[in-house]
């Protein structure tokens, strides 16, 4: 696809990977809306970027419907959904609760699925479209304390494969991106960005992977892309 003049909806776009991706796309002529749960943070980030702000929580189905209403009212059509919003809880299995699983799954799994479902309706009508799902290397291999978070990303990986099977006949490309550790505000209680570490991945590297995957001619797509730091040690 051509990035210039294409329309993008990025969930969790106020910081980290979402913010870096919005910035890179806008610098290449795209039209971008970002979502975030905190109105002040969302509007501030959008103003910095030159993006369209939508205050919404992907864990809330009514917010998802309103997100699409506001997006379409502003842009008229959607070319690419980037399912980036996500959270993590890390506990030993004996300490995990149903509430922990529900909290993370409402965002990482159910929210992503409902966002994609609304996008799929539009893309089938258009006979074109793109969905980028931001998963994690935790969705390819489990780790100690990762029962809740890793399983949510395994679920997103499985759903991505299902959507690929369902939507290819409608010329819709569904792409999974698996970042390894990225220095963002992820899992930081204050939601402040972590200091940049020279040998660790930044949001910019993931944004580059997303942009590169999308820029392939629409006749082809990359089903899954994993991004590692070259030497994080």
TrEMBL record:
Keywords: NADP, Oxidoreductase
Listed SUPFAM superfamilies: NAD(P)-binding Rossmann-fold domains
Gene3D superfamilies attached to this UniProt entry: NAD(P)-binding Rossmann-like Domain
UniProt keyword annotation of Protein biosynthesis present: no
Superkingdom: Bacteria
Family: Belongs to the short-chain dehydrogenases/reductases (SDR) family.
GO molecular function, one term: oxidoreductase activity
CDD domains: SDR_c
Family matches, as InterPro entries: NAD(P)-bd_dom_sf (IPR036291), Sc_DH/Rdtase_CS (IPR020904), SDR_fam (IPR002347)
Claim: Oxidoreductase is one of the keywords in the record: yes
Name under which the protein is recorded: SDR family oxidoreductase
